[in-house]
Amino acid sequence: QQQVKQSPQSLIVQKGGISIINCAYENTAFDYFPWYQQFPGKGPALLIAIRPDVSEKKEGRFTISFNKSAKQFSLHIMDSQPGDSATYFCAAPPRDQAGTALIFGKGTTLSVSS
Amino acid sequence: EPEVTQTPSHQVTQMGQEVILRCVPISNHLYFYWYRQILGQKVEFLVSFYNNEISEKSEIFDDQFSVERPDGSNFTLKIRSTKLEDSAMYFCASSEQSGGVADTQYFGPGTRLTVL
Q1: Which helix or strand (DSSP H or E) is residue B85 part of?
Q2: How many angstroms separate the CA atoms of A12 and A27, rounded?
Q3: DSSP strand pairing (A72-77 vs A19-25)
Q4: Bond preceding residue A8 cis, omega within 30 of 0
Q5: How far is B90 from chain A (nearest CA, A)?
Q6: CA-based nearest residue to A14, from A75, A65, A84
Q7: CA separation (Å) from A66 to A40, A54, B86?
Q8: Is the CB of B48 less than 8 angstroms away from the CB of A99?
């Protein structure tokens, strides 16, 4: 299976709250898990990425949690801010090799209300 | 900070016409990609390119599509005879070759293609 299933489709969070977006995959060959952030009219920009040799990676307010046995990974945004309002995509390459495609989830539209 | 650039930002064309979308990848990157995103949908892989040849392509990338690196800096996507369903945002991306494993792909701002 080459799919990456992302949920929820949309998310509304109060300023200062925690935003959590989940992704699940089936292909055990997936070995690199980036999250991309996209603002309207712009290209996806890498936010944070993880390899399965660690269960968690934190960069500032953004944390990826990875559960290899459950084949799930999630993005946590702590202290969510209105500037975080964007669409977030999880992705994975079907092969851990240079030049391979990224398979994207369907995206989560995050709105952070002030 | 180096970035991927794309031109034009918006292209309007008539059905059946040929279009060429242009990209300048990050200068020291060796892998180049095209993706598309139909409005409101997920980003879909089209093709990857390395060492002047296609490395990988998806089912979407049929005979109507072609890619080329005409010189040392540009990377182009040609659609020979556009269809209404080709209307989408087209993103170019590039990545370094990092030990042969999957690496960060950096995306350009996109070209919005509208086929009338």
Answers
A1: none
A2: 30
A3: antiparallel
A4: yes
A5: 9
A6: A84
A7: 28, 8, 36
A8: yes
Interface residue B42 vs chain A (CB under 8 A)? yes
Q: Is B109 on the interface with A (CB under 8 A)?
A: yes
Strands annotated E in A8-83:
10-14, 19-25, 33-38, 45-50, 56-59, 62-67, 72-77
Q: Do B45 and A98 touch (CB under 8 A)?
A: no
Q: If we measure between CA atoms, which residue out of B42, B44, B106, B39 comes closest to residue B75?
A: B106
* Partners of residue B110 on adjacent β-strands: none
Cβ contacts of A33 on chain B, cutoff 8 Å? none
**Inter-chain touch B45–A45, beta carbons under 8 Å:** no
B36 contact partners, CB below 8 Å, separation of at least 6: B43, B44, B46, B60, B88, B89, B90, B91
How does pLDDT run along chain B (116 residues), one tens digit per residue?
789 999 999 999 999 999 999 999 999 899 999 999 998 888 999 999 998 999 999 999 999 999 999 887 899 999 999 999 999 999 999 998 766 666 789 999 999 999 99
Smallest CA–CA distance from A48 into chain B, residue: B104
Contact criterion met (CB below 8 Å) for B49 and B31: yes
Q: What tokens appear for A48 in the block?
A: 């944070």
Cα B84 off chain centre by: 18
Q: How far is CA B89 from CA A37, B11, B12, B109, in A?
A: 16, 10, 12, 9
The candidate with the shortest Cα–Cα distance to A51, out of B65, B104, B72, is B104
Distance CA B103, CA A93 (A): 9
